[in-house]
């Protein structure tokens, strides 16, 4: 039987943790898990609180509630696409530093995904039925951008976030002032998207050619108009 002296000082040991190096197979499995969480589960969020939690539910007419819910469904699908883009880009990124930046931004996008999902539930509406299709297409686009090179991949992030910022501004104009819950979520999302674009630009992101920017806008327009209804 061991006896301990009350005056004795416990021996503390320290461990040094080496960063784990993932193989390509590891990353594929991680991406598969992330896809399932994004589409069918609850995303792993940071410790940031939902901005809407500071506001009370407002009185909305039925037509207002329905329209806001559809806008939030578009934003939710946009965050599904953002997850897919970042995961695809991180998978094919050439430099570890670029991969780390993309994965850190993806963590904040996970917050957006969770906040939009919660708001949709509060508004009594559903997620888009086409989310798996948009996820697959966005992942392929992100992987292709990564294969083109880190400067183009980061440039893709810059352009995506700029377009998302404009898109959020348009939604904020449509959501009534009394719906502070929805507006607070979109405002925080906008702040984050602006920062993601600035980080990607500072890291060496290059401006995309005009035809690619226009193709991205067209794809976004198709997505938003489809998801509003489906």
UniProtKB/TrEMBL annotation:
GO terms for cellular component: plasma membrane. Residues 7-16 have a biased composition (Polar residues). One of its GO terms (biological process) is ubiquinone biosynthetic process. Belongs to the COQ7 family. Its main location: membrane. Its EC number is 1.14.99.60. Gene3D superfamilies: 1.20.1260.10. Fe cation 2 binds at residues 109, 161, 193, 196. Pathway: Cofactor biosynthesis; ubiquinone biosynthesis. Catalyzes the hydroxylation of 2-nonaprenyl-3-methyl-6-methoxy-1,4-benzoquinol during ubiquinone biosynthesis. It is found in: Cell membrane. This is 3-demethoxyubiquinol 3-hydroxylase. Fe cation 1 binds at residues 79, 109, 112, 193. Residues 1-20, 40-62 are annotated as: Disordered.
């Amino acid at each position: 039987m061991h006896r301990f002296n009350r005056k004795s000082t416990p021996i503390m040991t320290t461990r040094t943790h080496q960063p784990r190096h993932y193989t390509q197979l590891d990353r594929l499995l991680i991406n598969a898990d992330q896809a399932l969480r994004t589409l069918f589960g609850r995303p792993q969020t940071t410790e940031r609180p939902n901005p809407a939690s500071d506001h009370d539910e407002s009185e909305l007419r039925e037509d207002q509630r329905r329209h806001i819910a559809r806008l939030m469904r578009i934003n939710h699908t946009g965050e599904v696409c953002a997850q897919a883009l970042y995961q695809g880009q991180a998978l094919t990124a050439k430099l570890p530093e670029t991969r780390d930046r993309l994965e850190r931004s993806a963590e904040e996008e996970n917050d957006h995904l969770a906040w939009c999902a919660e708001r949709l539930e509060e508004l009594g509406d559903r997620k888009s039925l086409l989310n798996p299709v948009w996820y697959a297409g966005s992942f392929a686009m992100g992987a292709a951008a990564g294969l083109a090179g880190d400067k183009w991949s980061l440039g893709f992030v810059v352009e995506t976030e700029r377009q998302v910022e404009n898109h959020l501004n348009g939604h904020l104009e449509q959501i009534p002032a009394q719906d502070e819950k929805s507006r607070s979520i979109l405002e925080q999302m906008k702040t984050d998207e602006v920062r993601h674009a600035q980080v990607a630009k500072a890291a060496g992101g290059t401006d995309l050619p005009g035809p690619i920017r226009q193709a991205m806008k067209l794809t976004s327009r198709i997505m938003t108009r489809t998801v509003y209804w489906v």
